[in-house]
Amino acid sequence: MGDKHTIRLQPVDIEFEVDEDETILDGAFRQGLMLMHGCKEGQCAACKSFVLEGEVDMDKYSTFALPDFEEEEGWTLLCKAHAVSDVDIELVNYDEEVLRSGIPTKQVVATVAELEPLTSDIWRLALDLDPADGFEYKPGQYVDITVPGTDDVRSFSMASVPSTPNRLEFMIRHYPGGKFAGGFADGTLQVGHELDVKGPFGSFTLRDRPERRLLFIGGGAGMAPIVSLLRARREAGCTRRSVFYYGARGTADLFQVDELEGLQHQLADFAFVPVLSDADPGPDWTGETGFVTDVVARLEGDLRDVDAYLCGPPPMVDAAMELLLAQGLAEDRIYFDKFTTSAETEGSSL
Ligand SMILES: Cc1cc2nc3c(=O)[nH]c(=O)nc-3n(C[C@H](O)[C@H](O)[C@H](O)COP(=O)(O)OP(=O)(O)OC[C@H]3O[C@@H](n4cnc5c(N)ncnc54)[C@H](O)[C@@H]3O)c2cc1C
Ligand code: FES
C-alpha cells in the first residue's frame, strides 16, 4: 500500500481517496464511481482528462491516445495515472447519471460451470460465483477475466442478468492462438477450473428515458450485452419500442435466434432483424442481406428520437456511429462498447 491522496473531480464536484499504488481509474471503480473508459490500457483516450492542480505519475501508455504535447499541456489518461499528491481533475467525457450509479468493483474467484460452442467460432462460457462474495452488476456491463497462468486480463460482457447473480454467462469469440479463448478448443480451459474475475465495469447500461425508442446494433460476440439488456427488459415488463439489428456472415454464424425471436412475442413492440453479409447466404435465407449498417440505413427513417446501443468489433461500431450521426442522432444518445483486443501498443511512452 502506498500513500493516500484525495482526488477532486470537476465539474461534478465528487471527492474520493486513492492509493498511490492504484491508478486513479481503479480507485474510482473500487468506490463505485463509473468514470468513462474504454481499453483501460492507455490506448483509446476514452478516459482522457485534464489535471487542474496536483501531480500524477504515468504508467506506460500509447502516444496515439495522449500525444506528448497534450501531456505537457496537462492532459492525462486516468487509466494510467497514479496520484502523487492531491489532484483536481476536469472531466471532459462523462455521464453524471452513470458516474454516480456505479457498483464498487470486486475481485472474485469463479468456477467454470459450462463451456460449449454456439457456432464454429463463438462459445458460451458460464461461470459460477460464490454467493458469499455478493458480486453485483448491471445488465450490459462487463468483467475482466485473468488469463490463467498470466497477469493478462481479457474483458467479457455478461449476457446474463443480475436476477441470477451467482451465474455469469458470456458469448466469446474464439481466435486461433488467442491467449484466453484459444484455450476453449484445445481443452486448456475446462469445466471445474477456477478463474479470477474482476468487475463490474462499463457504461453500456440502459438509460431511463421511457419516451425514446431503442435501437440496438450488434455484430459477432457483441450480441452478449444486448441480450443481457433485452432479458432485463423482459423481466421488467418494459414497453419501450425497440429493434435489434444483428450482423453475422452466414446462417451458420447465427446463434441465440430462438430466444431472440421469442422475445418478439414476450416484449411489447420489439423486432429482431438478423442481417447476413455473405454474398450468397443460400436459398433458405429469406431475411436481410448486406452490411448491417446499410440495412439500418434502409429500414430506419428519422433517428432523432432513439437511444442507440452499439456493440461488437470496432469497425462495425465505428460504421454504425457514422451512420447514426449522419441520420441526425445526437452523439450523447449513442452508447457503445467496442470489443477492442489487446493489440500491441504502438508509439508507447515511458
Ligand atoms: C469492454 C470489452 C468487452 C468485451 N466483451 C467481449 C465479449 O463479450 N465477447 C468476446 O468475444 N470478446 C469481448 N471482448 C474482446 C476480448 O476482451 C478479447 O480481446 C478477445 O476475446 C481476444 O482475446 P484472446 O485472449 O482470445 O486473444 P488474444 O490473445 O488477445 O489475441 C491473439 C490473436 O488472436 C487474433 N485476434 C484477437 N482478437 C481479434 C480480433 N478482434 N480480430 C481479428 N483477430 C483477432 C489475433 O491474431 C491476435 O493476435 C471485449 C473487449 C472489451 C474491451
Ligand atoms: S481507458 Fe484509458 S486510454 Fe483507454
From TrEMBL:
<dbReference type="InterPro" id="IPR017927">
    <property type="entry name" value="FAD-bd_FR_type"/>
</dbReference>
<protein>
    <submittedName>
        <fullName>Unannotated protein</fullName>
    </submittedName>
</protein>
<keyword id="KW-0813">Transport</keyword>
<dbReference type="InterPro" id="IPR001041">
    <property type="entry name" value="2Fe-2S_ferredoxin-type"/>
</dbReference>
<feature type="domain" description="FAD-binding FR-type">
    <location>
        <begin position="105"/>
        <end position="207"/>
    </location>
</feature>
<dbReference type="InterPro" id="IPR036010">
    <property type="entry name" value="2Fe-2S_ferredoxin-like_sf"/>
</dbReference>
<feature type="domain" description="2Fe-2S ferredoxin-type">
    <location>
        <begin position="5"/>
        <end position="95"/>
    </location>
</feature>
<dbReference type="Pfam" id="PF00175">
    <property type="entry name" value="NAD_binding_1"/>
</dbReference>
<dbReference type="InterPro" id="IPR001433">
    <property type="entry name" value="OxRdtase_FAD/NAD-bd"/>
</dbReference>
<dbReference type="Pfam" id="PF00970">
    <property type="entry name" value="FAD_binding_6"/>
</dbReference>
<dbReference type="GO" id="GO:0016491">
    <property type="term" value="F:oxidoreductase activity"/>
</dbReference>
<dbReference type="InterPro" id="IPR001709">
    <property type="entry name" value="Flavoprot_Pyr_Nucl_cyt_Rdtase"/>
</dbReference>
<dbReference type="InterPro" id="IPR008333">
    <property type="entry name" value="Cbr1-like_FAD-bd_dom"/>
</dbReference>
<keyword id="KW-0285">Flavoprotein</keyword>
<keyword id="KW-0274">FAD</keyword>
<dbReference type="InterPro" id="IPR006058">
    <property type="entry name" value="2Fe2S_fd_BS"/>
</dbReference>
<dbReference type="InterPro" id="IPR017938">
    <property type="entry name" value="Riboflavin_synthase-like_b-brl"/>
</dbReference>
<keyword id="KW-0408">Iron</keyword>
<dbReference type="Pfam" id="PF00111">
    <property type="entry name" value="Fer2"/>
</dbReference>
<dbReference type="InterPro" id="IPR039261">
    <property type="entry name" value="FNR_nucleotide-bd"/>
</dbReference>
<dbReference type="GO" id="GO:0051537">
    <property type="term" value="F:2 iron, 2 sulfur cluster binding"/>
</dbReference>
<dbReference type="InterPro" id="IPR012675">
    <property type="entry name" value="Beta-grasp_dom_sf"/>
</dbReference>
